[in-house]
Design brief:
about 230 residues; alpha/beta; Glucose Oxidase, domain 1; nine-stranded mixed sheet; 7 helices; 14 strands
């Protein structure tokens, strides 16, 4: 006979990058982060902002399973200032994983956002809270608190593996995950991305009409023109 699993499995420690390192990503568009990561890093496009607020913080993961939020409750009880609660639900859409009350407690503890591949509820009250919230959608149906679940362990959320200690950035376009092991690399590449974007933006605002790489292709002799 297989024993019942524990209600919660919780990591003893959570790696957290220094606050000054996290702050270096502030006010950076998610598109810049993706470019610095080599063209990827975003969660499923359906995970969109419920509140019109951007965020940057450190992932604290929890795996709830469908129609349950015991693990998220435990994560809120452990969250620290600067954390982003990452709540996996296996993409469940028939019940919310949280509403305004639990998120309010998280905000009081210093959490800077929530991301879930599931649903949330109490949108009006969450808007009033002023905490960034990203989800697949909204439903008033409520979850159970039965477990099993995990806190602090790697999760699959929005098509990507997310670990506690990863840096999470969210804006109007969606959510991007910077793996803990790639934080320094991403910062180094980000300087070049910012410089290139600033230069191109200045050129566009000055009246640029040419798409340089297309012009090179058109003049390179590797196109075939046809009469129609």
């Amino acid at each position: 006979m297989i024993d019942d699993p524990p209600l919660l499995t919780i990591a003893k420690t959570t790696p957290r990058p220094p606050a000054d390192v996290v702050a270096r990503f502030a006010n950076t568009p998610t598109s810049f982060i993706v470019d610095a990561l080599g063209g990827q890093g975003a969660l499923d496009w359906r995970i969109k902002p419920i509140t019109p607020l951007s965020m940057v913080g450190v992932a604290l993961t929890c795996d709830n399973g469908p129609a349950d939020n015991l693990a998220l409750c435990a994560a809120v009880a452990q969250c620290q200032p600067g954390d982003v609660l990452m709540a996996a639900t296996e993409g469940y859409s028939k019940a919310a994983v949280t509403g305004d009350l639990l998120l309010g407690i998280a905000k009081n503890r210093g959490a800077v956002g929530l991301v879930t591949d599931g649903m949330i509820r109490d949108k009006a009250d969450i808007l009033a809270l002023g905490i960034p919230c990203f989800a697949m959608g909204i439903t008033p149906d409520s979850p159970a608190r039965n477990g099993p679940g995990t806190v602090g362990l790697p999760i699959l959320c929005g098509g990507r593996t997310v670990g506690s200690g990863d840096i999470i950035i969210g804006d109007a376009d969606g959510v991007v995950v910077i793996p803990y092991a790639r934080i320094d690399e991403t910062l180094q590449r980000l300087d070049a991305v910012r410089a290139a974007e600033a230069k191109m933006l200045a050129n566009v605002r000055a009246g640029l009409k040419d798409v340089a790489f297309i012009d090179a292709i058109l003049k390179g002799g590797r196109i075939h023109q046809v009469d129609i």
